[in-house]
Amino acid sequence: MRIQWVIITWGRGSGANSIVAYNLLITDVDPLELDLYFERFINPYRSSPPDFDIDFSWDERDDVTDYIFKRYGKEHTALLATYNTFKGRSIIRELGKVLGLPPADIDVIVNEPLASDKHHPFAKHIFRFGKMIEGLPNYLSIHAGGILISERPLNYHTALLLMPKGFPIVHFDMYGAEDLQFHKYDVLSQRGLGHIKDTVKLVKENQGKAIDIHNVSAIKEDVEVKNSSNLANVLVVFILSLRPCVACLQS
Q1: pTM score, whole prediction
Q2: H or E segment at 185?
Q3: Do residues 104 and 220 both lie within one domain?
Q4: How many alpha carbons lie under 13 Å from residue 12 in its C-beta half-sphere?
Q5: Residues 56-95: tens digit of each pLDDT
Q6: Residue 113 domain-assigned (yes or no)
């Protein structure tokens, strides 16, 4: 099975400080050349294993996820879950439905919780049981990017829930995964990568020039890039556009 993208991945964060990541082509930055602080990635005092945030173009993320499921099999692959808990007004609405209250009566309790004279007689039960279930799991949702790949079929460890996109999720969150000694893979999407990919394509179509965005050496020596960095003109540059980075460039 082979899959091709114009831009495959972009490793970022503390993982860029690892020479192993550089040698495996996960990142394009030589940490030795730039004297990056390796201990930011891994050190003896970390309480959890290090991980990589690897970004894909926003319009290719579903393709990547589909590839992972086909590559490792649906019995061994699932998305990580998050717990949505009972909280705030949702408690009133959920219990109101359970007790059979009309939507109009539920709205009154939600919008005027202290106006007991306007409440349905069952409101006292809603407030009583609401305190008991506050903070408890309500329903499962999909983690922003976490994927689990297991050696044994995942149903040895958990039930699975099929979500609307066609990918199953496990019945535990990232903390439960750590307790079971699973290491999650974050498949994240980044719109900036999509813009870079589109730019490469447009330059090729309009000017006939092929741009290698992985040629970091050429980028570092580019006069225009240096001038933009020196002037802190980095509004559209991912991460560098954050205020702390801009302040560092301006200092």
Answers
A1: 0.70
A2: strand 185-190
A3: no
A4: 15
A5: 888 888 888 899 999 999 999 999 999 999 998 999 999 9
A6: yes
What is the edge-to-edge ordering of all strands in the sheet holding 77-85?
A: 10-12, 53-57, 185-190, 137-149, 77-85, 168-170, 160-162
Claim to verify: residue 121 and residue 145 sit in the same structural domain: no
- What are phi and psi for residue 2, nearest 5 degrees? -130, 140
Q: Say whether both 122 and 231 belong to one domain.
A: no
Residue 162 CB partners (closer than 8 Å, separation 6+): 168
Residues 14 and 48 both lie in one domain: yes
Question: What pLDDT score does 4 carry?
Answer: 45
Q: How far apart are CA 157 and CA 93, in angstroms?
A: 33
What is the helix (H) or strand (E) element at residue 189, kind and residue range? Answer: strand 185-190
- Count Cβ atoms below 10 Å from residue 146 Cβ, excluding itself: 23
Helices (H) and strands (E) in the chain, counts: 10, 7
- Side chain identity at residue 132, one-letter code: M
Q: How many domains does the chain have?
A: 3
List Cβ neighbours of 121 (8 Å cut-off, separation of 6 or more). none
Using CA atoms, how far apart are residues 224 and 229, in angstroms rounded to an integer? 9
Look at residue 32 and give its three-state secondary structure. Answer: coil
Do 16 and 125 belong together in one domain? no
Residue 55 domain flag: yes
Which pLDDT does position 10 carry in this prediction? 59
**Do 119 and 20 sit in the same domain of this protein?**
no
Instruction: Give the pLDDT confidence of 156-212 residue by residue, as tens digits.
Output: 999 999 998 889 999 999 889 988 888 888 888 878 778 888 888 999 999 998 888
Residue 154 structural domain? 10-78+139-192
What's the CA gap between 17 and 214, in Å, rounded? 17
- Average per-residue pLDDT in the chain? 85
